[in-house]
Structures are given as structure tokens and as C-alpha cells.
């Protein structure tokens, strides 16, 4: 957006949901061949992109349109910072792209080394080269002890969050006691748990009429499910300093599920184990954060419900994101609410969770 | 609640989500033995209640506590009206109880006759005997033509809604073209589609820590899924007079999923089939209604989002309901909102959907 006298003032915001695009040689250049061959990689066929992860093969519809839409800085950090300046985005929590598929790995050595290599790459090639874009660390889900060690190692390197998938296999749900060491380590290091929508499960579950929108909705429920397990299972109650982000799934649903969980907790009280020291909605309001891109409701519900852990995200460089229309989106979102709520959603919540480079004083809100 | 000088004034409301408890001989007294034997029935063992439906057997945890909690009027219509007077509830949309299990029937004759018998029972024993409690009709899901005929028959008898389950088997999703005659018939007769949470699927999907609350949350997603299929599949767009109620699952999530579906519809537009004449959120705001029992957020989001199709429900005589604390609940819910919103949630939305006995002028709001 070119600034002219007639154009509205540029709004500057942090983005709690962006992505880095890893180079194709990330793992091949950093791991021995026997491991690199099993790390996540993508091959493009005529109609499908095929993802390979440790012997698993996942076909995805090829989407040339998405490539065409990709912002100039998707693969180049210096150009990316120019994209950010153009869009009015100061700091980004940038999730993985290919790295998301690391959650499919069940082999202990492979899981550990893929995570370490990704984190080393991010530290060297992303986070050490500038101070506006930072990533969560990846941790191995194949072994909780390895995940704890990687939290300790990456916290030392300056990582402030770990990425976790919303979808889980049966027996791996986030409320199970097996994850307790992970929560203890994250709490001890002030590491934010950054769950991202659309990860850890199948994203195309329906192929009938309206499938594209139905499937988009289907990615939403696993984010809600994470909250239900982390709260009802007691993890967030036992670790009151632990912070959970559900990225990209909207935010207006959070107070709704808080009330719904309260109703279940109270009305089905004789079946409830464990008992919690606070109501689910209280735990959610103090420890669960959510990010959205376009949703007016994410902003509109704040004043009425008092749920303020809402963050905007640009989802750069993805198709669901705001690249090319960030200013239009931001100007549209905040017409009905106070300057305090605008500040909270675009900057304050993010700055509460993360130690980030402050937005220069000459950048408007 | 006894009215004394010190007690707050009684608030009178309609309930968009209540239940009738059918007599054990409903089907045996109305169907030939060869069909009655296959109709839904319940047997109580030592630890489990066993439900039989046409050869299927479903074990449910026995819950003496729920029996002990049951309001006096659960099985007696005259006593029930006294319960309603005590609680401050004027009119109730009363869903089935055992009748819910009719959705499991796949045999055409059985499905048709079980539905007819239930509707005849409701007409004779519930709706003809008083004018405050009315039920949706049951329709057979085993054959859409039979369902259409039962809509026509029951509309003539004075039914204003049909009950439909939120959960569907694969190949039966509500967005599929096979249901088109049902939507056309419902629209033609002004019949409301009353979907109820916790029906048509498995309600205990997780047995780990926090299972009671996690499973309570799991019943919420199928209600959202109904909306996504009915909107994205185009049914509500093709039938703009059709009204959908999602009962018992809360209401504050509705604007959230409207925005989420808009984002999918716009950002993934090149994959979207069918195209809609209105945005998903517009369709939802004019045709989707939701009911809740206790949730403060269901009321709190109305002013900010402008989503007003919100109805309170008492869930009488169920454990998740407000029997015994209805007045406490109603007095607590409306402290922060305008009298207009209070009227809308407790009376106006319900009276917009249904032709009901008006609340006498001496009953306060």
C-alpha cells in the first residue's frame, strides 16, 4: 500500500501467526544421509505434491495458485522484511512449514535429530540474522525426555516457544500424564506452548458439497480439543504459569468453550476427575491465547466477555493470510472497539507473551 | 423458589431446549409386536443401562444420581406444569428422550412406524392436553421420502419443528443432495429443523484424565458441523426461509464459526463448490439459531457481534439443565445487557420461530 495524503495512516501490528519456508536442503545439509533420507521432504508430481516422512507418504492436491500468490519474501529473509514493512507488520511468531510434518515421526533418533537440525537452522539462518521474526522450537514427540532436553537447549539459545500440533493420535492426547515432564519443563523455562491449527491430523475429511469450507471448519475443532484436554486433564491447573497459544483458528470461540466446560464441570461434577482448583473458564482466561486473521468476531467479543488474550496474525506467507490486504483488514477490524482493545489485540497480548523488539514510536497504531 | 418480599422478582422465560420422558409402553401399545420388539427400549442392569434399537445394543453407564435428581414432573404432565410455574418457564420446545434413538434405525418400515407412533403419542398425550409444552416431530432417517410425508402429516397436526441429530454416519452428512427433498418440505411447511446436541453419534469418545469434561466438549463440535454442512453445502442458501436450531450446545460460538467459514469461503475461493449467494456468516445470522442453559458468553457476545438468534433453554428434566436453580441462573445471566437483549434471549427469538401461547402480562421479565 502506497502512503499518500489520501490514504489512511498505516497501522502497525505484531503477528502471532506467520510461517517460515524452510530451504529444501535444511535436513540434507545438516544430518547424516541415513537420517536426512527419512526427514520430511516434498516432491511435486503432475497433480499432487507428495510428502515423505520416515517412510510415510502423504499426497496433497497440487496448488499452483498458492505458489503464484506467494509473497516475494517467502523464501528470502531480506525481502521478507520489506514485505513486513509494506504490510505494517513489525514482529512475527513464525511457525514451521515443512517442519510441521516432524510430528508424524515416531522413531526416537530421527525425531530428536530432525528437531535439533530445524532449531539450529532457525537459530542460525532466521533468528540470529534479524530481531523481528522469531520461531518456536520444534521438539520430538517420539520421546518426551528428548522433548524436555530440546526445550532446555533451545531456551538457552533464545527460543521463547515450542510448536505443538493440535491433532493427536489416540493414546497421545495432551491431557495424558505422559506429557507432564514437557509441561513442567516449559513452565520452568517460560516457554510458550504454541499449538497451530491444521497440524497433526488429516485435513481433508469430507469431499461432498461445500467440502472446502467444511474442511476449513474441521481444522478448528482440534484447537478447541487441545484446550479441553489441557484444562480438563489438569495440566494448566498444575502449571499456572504455563501459557498456551492456539494459532490461526479464530478467537471468539474461546469464551464459548470456557462456559461450556464450566457447565460440564459443574453439572457432571460427580464424574469429574481430576478436580481443578479453578473453574475451566478461569484457567482459560488466564492461560489460553488465540490468534485470528480476518474474523470481526474475534475483536467484537472482547468487551462483552472480558476475554482479552486475543492476538491478530497475518499468516504470512499463506493463502489464508492477509498479505496484500493487511492494511485493509486492520482498518476494517477495529471500527467498533476502544483504542485499548485495538492495542491489546495488535500489540499488547503479543508483548505480554513474548520478549520482542519494540515497535518504533513513529509507527502508528 | 418461594416468593417473599426479599426475593427478587421472578423472571419468566420460554425454554427452547427441554425434553419429554416417554412412557415405557409408547411403542408396544401402538405398534404390532413384530415392530414394537425392535423399537427403542431400555433395560437396567446392575451397572449399565442397555438400550436396544432394532438389534443394536448400546450400553450406557447407569446413573442413579440422575434419577435422584429428576424433577417431580418428569413423567407427569400435570405435575410438570407445576414445575414450570415454580421455575418461571412458560413454554417449552420439548425434545424426545428415548425417541432420540430412532435415528439409529436403518430399516425403512420400522423407521417410518416408530416415528409415526411417537408423533401420534406426542400429539395425543402431550400437545393436545395443554398449550405450553410442544415437541418437534420425529421423522425417519431411513428414507427421505418417508421423512417428507411425515413432515406433511405432522405439520397438519400442528407440529412446528422436526428433531434431527447432530451426528451423522459417513454418507449421510446434512450437506448431501440426498436430503434436498427434506429441506424443501420443511421450508414449504414452515417447519423448523431442530438439531439437538449429543444425538446421532458416540458421546463417550475419551476415557483419560478430564474425560467427563472433554466428552461434554466433544458433543459441541457436531453442532458446529451441522452448521458448516448446511451452510457450505448450500441447503440454507437454496432455502432462505428454512430455520435451523442447534439446541443445548451454547451460542457464543456461532459468530466465531460464521467468520471462520467466511475466511475459508473467501481465501480458498478457487476450491469452493457450490458458490453461495450470500456469505456464510450472513446465512448463519439469518437462519441459524442456538440455545444454551448457563453460559454467560451466550448473552455477552450479542451486543458486540450483533448475532441475536440466541435462545435460553432449561434442558428440563436433564442433569445439564437448570431445574432447581432456574431463577438464580436467569438473574445471574442478564446483569450486563440491555432489556432488549434480555427479552430477545428469553422470549423474542423463541416467539419469532414458534407460534406459542403468549406469556401472561402479569409474568415479569
UniProtKB/TrEMBL annotation, chains A, B:
Key word Translocase present: no
SUPFAM superfamilies (UniProt xref): Metallo-dependent hydrolases
Residue ranges the record marks as coiled coil: none
Pfam entry (one): Amidohydro_2
Residue ranges occupied by any Amidohydrolase-related domain in the UniProt entry: 75-355
GO terms under cellular component: cytoplasm
Protein's UniProt keywords contain NAD: no
Keywords: Hydrolase, Lyase
One Gene Ontology MF term: hydrolase activity
GO biological-process terms attached to the record: secondary metabolic process
Protein name in the entry: Amidohydrolase
Organism expressing this protein natively: Nocardioides immobilis
